[in-house]
Amino acid sequence: MKHPFLELCKNKIVVLDGAMGTNLQKQFLTPQDFGGKDGCNEYLVITKPEAVRKIHEDFFAVGCDAVETNSFGSNRIVLAEYGLEDKAFELNEKAAKLARKAANKCATPDHPRFVLGSIGPGTKLPSIGHIGVDELREATKEQIKGLMAGGVDGLIIETCQDLLQTRTALIAAEECFAEAGRRLPLIAQVTIESSGTMLLGSDLHAAITTLEMFPIDVIGMNCATGPAEMTEHVRTLCENSRKLISVLPNAGLPENVGGIAHYKLTPEEFAAYHERFVKEFGVSIVGGCCGTTPEHLKAVVERVKGCVPKQRKVRHEPSCASLYGSVTFKQDPAPLLVGEQTNANGSKRFRQILERNDYEGLLEIGREAVKEGAHVIDLCVAFTGRDEKKDMTEAVTRFNQHVTAPLMIDSTEPAVLEEALKHISGKPIINSINLEDGEGKLATVCGLAKKYGAALVALVIDEKGMARTRDEKFAVAKRIHDLAVIKHGIRPENIFFDLLTFTVGCGDENSRSAAIETLEAIKRVKKEFADVRTILGVSNVSFGLAPQSRKILNSVFLHEAVAAGLDAAIVHVERIVPVFKIAPDDLEAAKNLIFNKWIDGKDPLEVFIRHFETKTGSASAVTKPGGSDLPVEDRLKAHVIDGVKEGLEATLDEALKKYRPFEIINQFLLEGMKVVGQLFGAGKMQLPFVLRSAEIMKRAVAYLEPFMEKKEGSERGRIVLATVKGDVHDIGKNLVDIILSNNGYKVFNIGIKQPIDAVLKAVEEHRADAIGLSGLLVKSTHIMKEDLEEMNRRNITLPVLLGGAALTERYVCEDLASLYRGEVHYGRDAFAALKIMEKIKAEDPETERIKEAKKMLAVKPVERPHAPRADHPREEPAKRRVSLVRHDNIVPRPPFMGYRILKNLRLQDIFPWVNKKSLYTVQWQFKQGDRTERMFDLFLQENVEPLFERFTQQCIREKILQPKAMYGYFPCYSEGDDLIVLDENGKIERTRFQFPRQKRDPYQCIADFFRPKSSGLLDVVAFTVVTMGSRIREVEEKAFKGHNYQEYLYLHGLSVEATAALAEYLHAMVRRELRIHLQDKQTKWEIFRQGYQGSRYSFGYPACPRLEDQRKLFGLIPADKIGVSLSEIFQMVPEQSTSAVIVHHPQAKYFSV
């Protein structure tokens, strides 16, 4: 396309303007200037147009070639937050006309000026379901039509945080151009965060691969960071994109100064970076984003004056992309592997899960395929009797967000293909086009590929059917190539020809040469069409043969196809064996069949079938792993102690030649676990490594189980584990499960929130020797007491292990032990539980006492009257001195009354608030032991910091933690020990918190920190609720059940501390809003130790232990809006949630009642 703006880009470095918001702030506009829509900069084009016009003219005055319209947030979705959604078209048109007028005023024949219509990302991310793509597309079209009506010279889709939002905006632009009958220059700019990816985790290569499939003129970056942080990304962009490049950084990284973002990069420093971007990297368009002023851009104009765009050497590699990353079509070693197990036509398992409407189950198969090594996932949900379009939408939206590999959408229906393509964030591959129904359907699908930026698989099928010979295959391929490339404008690099292969296993004459014909066709297509790719569904070649032989034949055929030039293969990756691992006789039999080679007049198919009928074990010869000089007995222990998986099965196989399975377990594996326990107890082994040993133990036992006779069990005892009623915390219980189950005990872990009836039912069903009860908060200790009383009432005396953060050894061994008629033990940690079980069983597995206890489980409970008790007994006020809390402090003025929900929280902003000391030493349980402090710090830096980086990035990438928060301010006053919270107007009592008071000096109570009613003045209190969502529990459970114990510990610990970090993050924000943040200490470590004014108190903890007061807090802040609810004992669900009462008083600090 020829356009004056693009012609200018060829001849000079084009300079765009700087920040709109920064320069509006400098005008000190009043709420009246915003027409009552304070904060809506876009509305100023109506209410205060001269303020916007001034900024445009100021940037033109310093030499900028183009300005952006004041329309960044002018789509109806964003404007709805201000009640302005019906003004979307008008605001965009006016913004364009305003900039157009300034451009015309400043333009001269020697210096034309241009206007670019600014389109921001909005506030909702379609990739994670915030908004539907159709709604987003229509809103963007309305915005574009307004900008075009106002006379913009081009469109700039900028600050893109979600590739699906970007694709949708580009599609909307193309639709608007088609309807208007004219095109405009089109710029797409992504935002790369300081983490190195876009907000949702997309790397820059994913963005380049995806966006270059659309007819954009410029691809660039803006916002988030300064030019220093952008440098390497600018280099990557210039080296890999064939489009013109634009770069619009912030004026450095923002610093919070007095509650206002301050950008410290000087105009000269800012301009120096741009000069480098232009001269060294070949950037064509420069400008500024947040914090940049006319002074910054004046310096840029002067620095790049006289520069011409540099010729760039671009390394273009045809690729596909997911939301997260890009995968090149050319793989080294070849081929590109496309996972086939997510196909309803080829996978029975996938089809059965689909029939149950278990879309999450489908997702797990996709993830498995990626773990096995698939580069791309072939997704097909077509199945008779089902709604394919609905199934595809359900599957694609999940795969798009949660599978890291790009997608190949496999369907014969254009409507299904389009529905899928709408919801994919990256660059997919369509499977497929052909000529079976003539050229019309091919044209439709090619149109979809161009519209949505997809590559294509082309099957060599025409109106006559599937091509079988090499000549037929090539003829159909050539016809499809000419139609797709010449007629429909598909680039050859984006076409994969599937030359089709047929089974060599049916024995008829036509099929004997099927493999040869396919291999020869691959060679010819690659020779004639150098830029296209080839692909095969490999397993078709072995259809009809015995399962044990198919794996070998498929593997050998794939090897031969790659040698012939095959680029991609649709396979079940785990079922492909490298040729060097295949036994020579297996390899020969497979090759003879593929190439129809008759030896001594023998049919190669018959020889192949008979050959594998004689095979009793694995069809491949795998090299035996290297041994060790240690005896096998010591190697068994070493596997467990060192947590080494490699060679485990070979060691077990060797041991089975000398020992029975139960002897291996009891004499060697359990001895290894015993050493692990000793090392842990001595502080010489960290918990994460203990869990790795447990994983190896679990793997070894699972391997030995098929060799055991039923009577051979190595069970040392039985225990039922549960978290008590209402309590959602299970990490401690699960760690006990791991250690006991890997030390020979049979564990029945019945989960969280278990009433005592369920526990005792499990005890009876499984004939348990002991019960383990766990709970985190103080309320749970009361439930434990009630459970023990109920067991007394039923005359049950089984040994009970109690554990949890709120328990103390003294409370268990004195208070609870004296209450219960049986044995009560305090389980400080998982290995303490192991020692307790060993002690219990050492008495005799079936003492009369335990037998009697088991019998009593079947006895009907004896009803005994007991005195009723009040739900919330009120303590008598303690005798106290005059309160030492002063009330001459200034009561802050909050920015609003009532509650608000925080939107678009980013883990990248929250993780810096994680208390790493607590995470590493408490949650992950890395201990200093006998190391010096310096050596321990070095150990953490070298071994644990990488774990932190790995798991934080995983949580961001896979959306494992989903931060949500809400908070509110309310007028209040105190009355004795009560805090009375009023409505937003300060008139009506909403609720009353009755806080306990210390019974010792200084007799503190939370209510003391608020103005008393007698003062006649109102105070203010803040409440918060934060959560990391429920997905983390699903991920933890999967890791736990899959025996990935280290991952389970790391993810759980991180989720706990990330929740606390979110609470800290929100508390810091509250302090800023109340303007008491100037008292904050300088370092995070000081902040974690209450280095700020005021305090944050949570129910269930020492200063306010009554967990039931959560119900009152939830009455003020409806936390169900962010997915948080209360259990029957008032604990929050999901588990990783926390609430708080925030007190601003300078004397408020933590204390215990």
How is the topology of this model organized?
Elements: H1 4-11, E1 14-15, H2 20-25, H3 44-47, H4 49-61, E2 66-68, H5 76-79, H6 88-106, E3 114-119, H7 133-149, E4 154-160, H8 163-180, E5 186-190, H9 204-211, E6 218-222, H10 227-240, E7 244-248, E8 255-257, E9 260-262, H11 267-281, E10 285-286, H12 294-304, E11 319-321, E12 326-328, E13 336-339, H13 348-355, H14 359-372, E14 376-379, H15 388-402, E15 407-410, H16 414-422, E16 429-433, H17 439-452, E17 455-459, E18 461-462, E19 465-466, H18 470-487, E20 495-498, H19 509-512, H20 514-528, E21 533-537, H21 547-564, E22 568-571, H22 584-594, H23 604-613, H24 632-642, H25 648-656, H26 661-681, H27 687-704, E23 717-723, H28 731-741, E24 745-749, H29 756-766, E25 770-774, H30 778-793, E26 800-803, H31 809-819, E27 824-826, H32 830-843, H33 848-856, E28 898-902, H34 907-910, H35 916-923, H36 933-958, E29 964-975, E30 978-982, E31 989-994, E32 1019-1027, H37 1031-1041, H38 1045-1073, H39 1084-1088, E33 1095-1097, H40 1110-1116, E34 1125-1126, E35 1132-1133, E36 1137-1143
Parallel strand pairs: 1-10, 2-3, 3-4, 4-5, 5-6, 6-7, 7-10, 13-14, 13-22, 14-15, 15-16, 16-17, 17-20, 20-21, 21-22, 23-24, 23-25, 25-26, 26-27
Antiparallel strand pairs: 8-9, 11-12, 18-19, 28-29, 29-30, 29-32, 30-31, 32-36, 33-36, 34-35
Helix pairs in contact: 4-6, 6-7, 7-8, 10-11, 11-12, 14-15, 15-16, 16-17, 18-20, 20-21, 21-22, 22-23, 24-25, 24-26, 24-27, 26-27, 27-38, 28-32, 35-38, 37-38
